[in-house]
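Question (not urgent): is this output format expected?
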Amino acid sequence: MSLSQSEASLLECLERMGGKADAAALASKLGLPESSIFPLSSLLSTKGYVTLTEEVTERFRLTEEGERCAKEGMPETRVMGLLESRGGSAPLTDVSAALRPNEVSAALGWGRKTGAFAIERRGAASILVLKAAKQSELDAAIRRMKEGGDTSRLSKEDQSLAVQLKARGLLELKEVKRLTLAAVPGKHAAEVSLNLLSSEIIRSGRWKEVTLRPYDVSASPPSLKIGKRHPYIAFLEETKEIFISMGFEETSGPFVETEFWNFDVLFQAQDHPARAIHDSFQVRGVEQGIDAPEDLIQRVKATHESGGGTGSRGWGYSWDLKIAAQPLLRTQMTVESARYLASHKEPPVKAFSLSKVFRPDVIDARHMIEFSQLDGIVGGEGINVRHLLGVLKEFGHRLGFDDIKFKPSYFPFTEPSIEAYIKHPTLGWIECLGSGLFRPEVLTPLGIKFPVIAWGIGIDRFAMIRLGLNDIRDLNTTSLEKLRQWGWW
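Got this back:
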């Protein structure tokens, strides 16, 4: 029966040590951890090269606290000495101050059990009084056990006292297994089959005594599970690169927004259902003013109340500044498009943003309360719906999605408004974006005098199709098994 190189090395070392040695000695000679000797010795035993003898012993050693007591004396011994030096009594507060917190109850318990001392009340004070001079048998025992060793070497009395010291956290008891290997006569390490030749084997001439295992040149190498970027993150980065290659500028903003930027600038009425607590995450404990010029705030107010010179009648209510100043987690990335337009008033404009948005929702295969949204705008003279559809089709084509259909829709801040759907092989047609031309009620207060097309894409639904997922929750998985099933690993 052939041996592996590791088995042969262990057997050779055992032969050099006289044919018998324990695992610890072999590990030291071979420069290996002792834990490596156990599986190798078991294999050698199964193949009939060695016999194994296992001996289980119990060893003891003092803990750090135990070593301190061996040096300074047991707590009860120190209390006895304090009482004797004070004439037989001392306030309990003085006794406690002379000990460590974890020693007080043990010392007093010993005193009550042996009758050595007791606590008495004298007025408002508690006094510890010496009743009889006693010697703690643990005091001498802990000094005898200072060096540690096998419990079998202790006397029966000390074995009993060791249990008490362990209960007080002063001594540790541990079972230790000692494995002894003995070489079987007539079995030698020369019967070894190697996977490869080393320079040492060649120089020593051992290559003449060994058998090389056959090498299968047709065998496949092991697959390497190397680290890679998360497929979902890689998809989002690819999406950004597509828009940048199409000439767009990337913009970004904070997670926590005011309702002013998230809703009011986008001409969404303050009593609109989407602004209710069940459709947006309100933020408490954040004092956040509206970071916008006063003239913009006033123009937005006028637009909501009466149209503000946009040709619209507005919403016909009294606009509330307090509502507009309320903080919330942004519900869509269109807020970043509005912020961008507020500081870019000259055409052409071409920008996109891609990040997390937050909406209360019932979590299922298609919906999450936190998801990524891609928003974009193009503005300039002559821009119209045909440009919008062209940009969206081109983006879908570059991502590999040609099966897209559009239909009319409604959004408070665009007119006309358009929804787009992509086809999932399992879930069917999925709504993936809303788009349209920004209404004058959005553009005029921002000082924009040219048409602007805009869209908001639920990019996670594109990612589901690309990655072959039926559940949107799997996009954020950390399961290596699932990630490898996607085929990206």
